Q: What sequence folds into this?
């Protein structure tokens, strides 16, 4: 069984994330969406709220599970028998950052491989940070996040 981890802060989950997950589903038997505690980012949503929202989006998908973690991604992968890390790329800046991270993860654990997916061009500009700013400033955010969580985001 090919198990992959898609780590991120998902603050909030966007259509760009869904794009990557849908592509990864074609390759992997099981995908763990791993919500990490990134101390370099200021989180808007609690990990519990993010977990609940992501579970709602994937409630009928048996290939997807959602877990939280606060250790190294490669350690999380090992503890969940995952041999792959999924990463999304939007542009060359993403590629340079993700390549450096992938090489470091490979140095830490050679048995785990990072696999890159690009999102479709219509989702290429979407980032959680930008979506978060649109939401906080009462802008029209609905076209950037999964429809399953639009009403919840409006209540925040």
A:
């Amino acid at each position: 069984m090919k198990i992959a981890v898609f780590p991120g802060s998902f603050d909030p989950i966007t259509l760009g994330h869904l794009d990557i997950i849908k592509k990864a589903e074609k390759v992997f038997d099981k995908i763990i969406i791993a919500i990490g505690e990134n101390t370099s980012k200021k989180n808007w949503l609690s990990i519990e709220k993010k977990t609940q929202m992501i579970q709602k989006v994937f409630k009928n998908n048996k290939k997807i599970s959602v877990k939280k973690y606060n250790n190294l991604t490669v350690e999380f992968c090992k503890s969940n028998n995952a041999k792959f890390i999924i990463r999304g790329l939007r542009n060359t800046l993403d590629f340079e950052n993700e390549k450096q991270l992938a090489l470091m993860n490979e140095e830490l654990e050679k048995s785990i491989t990072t696999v890159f997916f690009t999102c479709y061009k219509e989702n290429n500009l979407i980032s959680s940070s930008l979506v978060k700013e649109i939401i906080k400033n009462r802008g029209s955010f609905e076209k950037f996040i999964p429809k399953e969580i639009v009403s919840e985001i409006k209540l925040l």
User: Anything to note?
Assistant: The chain has one domain: 3-155. Residues 48 and 68 are 9 Å apart (CA to CA). The longest strand covers residues 30-36. Helices lie at 15-25, 47-57, 73-79, 92-108, 128-136, 150-155.
